[in-house]
Amino acid sequence: MIRFTKSSITELEEQYVLDVLRNGILSGDGKYTPLVYKQFEQRFGIKNMLLTTSGTAALEMASILIDLCEGDEIIVPSFTFSSTVNAFLLRGAKPVFCDIRRDTLNIDETLIEGLITDKTKAIYTVDYSGVACEYDVINKIADKYGIFVIEDSAQAVGSYYKGQPCGTLTPFGCYSFHETKNYVMGEGGGIVLNEDRFFERAEIIREKGTNRSQLIRGMVDKYTWHDIGSSFLPSDILAAVLYAQMERFDEIMSKRLNVWNTYQRILESAETAGKLKRQVVPPECEHNGHLYNIILPNSDVRNRVIDEMKARGAACHICYVPLHSAPMGRKLGYEPSSCPVTEEYGSCILRLPLHANMTTEDAEFVADSICEVV
Ligand SMILES: Cc1ncc(COP(=O)(O)O)c(C=O)c1O
Fold first, then answer.
1. Could you read off the pLDDT of 160-211 as tens digits, one per residue?
2. Does the CB atom of residue 175 touch ligand 1 within 6 A?
3. Separation of alpha carbons 29 and 232, rounded Å
4. Does residue 243 sit in the same domain as residue 369?
């Protein structure tokens, strides 16, 4: 069976984890956390980053940092993971769902301005499948109305928009290093503070509302409670796994891109024959091979393809159930008709297996099988 996802773990990850266990500093911000930051600085020019316990936690921190209040409205795609919306729902803000583009499956930037009201506090964008949203347009709208943009770049570590790394395109970038992502630490994430003014408060929020980070840096001689916050910092054991992954960054990226490019090459003929559509990556976006989508004619075809591929030995999965029509979305009063493109695509997108353990032959087998099955 070709698994849907599988993280790539080597002796290097084992070696660094053992090092932490032996040096005995297992809590957050030990030896490996700053080493991870150095990797992100060298590779992407990121100066202010904080590791978190998850991508979800990074989004929650961003929601605290922009001081959301009861009744604030957030413009967000419905085609995303629950965490994007829970992060601000937990602070009392309300989602205003925006439809997606048919080509990139990202938020449709041409619809955003029509959704802005005097209650709009922010736009939460999602770089779905590691393809960046149209940030020149989105940031211009945000500037015009004086609202924030929070980039859910959970899937986009190592992707670029017009040469600029995802995660650095708005004041806040939120990465995930969950086991299913490109670079993993089991459960984990990171918040990128692209405006210096947010860094000090972010450190406090991450450390249960205390200035303990300042104590560790020798800036104060005792630490105490300053703000709201939570335990958003991950164990250094997990940071050690991520550090090894970052040292193997190019190897992991090239293996994933090899699978992605093999799919793209073989599935062209099925698209030309009108059997499926492939997601479009605009020329200004450099993607990270996070996942590969095909768009099938309808949900019946998708179900049959899933079953047939399983029988042939490859695990393919559906993507998001759109949030506005999921049980929680309905409970909040949203109607499936409010985002028609999201609704249509939610029922017919299929994700193919993609991970760094797959060989070219595996990818050829999956893509050839898809061509036969459709
Ligand atoms: C778009 C998006 N946002 C947020 C998350 C949450 O990340 P995590 O699982 O690290 O909390 C994910 C991960 O599945 C995601 O894909």
1. 999 999 999 999 999 999 999 999 999 999 999 999 999 999 999 999 999 9
2. no
3. 11
4. no
Task: Specify whether 348 is located in the same domain as 278.
Answer: yes
307 in the same domain as 224: no
Tokens of 321: 């159930």
Is 164 in the same domain as 105? yes
Q: Is the predicted pLDDT of residue 148 greater than 90, yes or no? A: yes
Tell me what the mean pLDDT of segment 27-50 comes to. Answer: 98
138 lies in some domain: yes
Atom number of ligand 1 nearest to Cα 177: 10
**Residue 81 Cβ < 6 Å to ligand 1:** yes
Query: How many Å from the N-terminal Cα to the C-terminal Cα in the chain?
Result: 20
Instruction: Report the alpha-carbon distance of residue 105 to residue 82 in Å, rounded.
Output: 17
Q: Which two tokens stand for residue 373?
A: 């099955």
64-85 pLDDT, tens per residue?
A: 999 999 999 999 999 999 999 9
Domain-ending residue, one of 198, 230, 248: 248
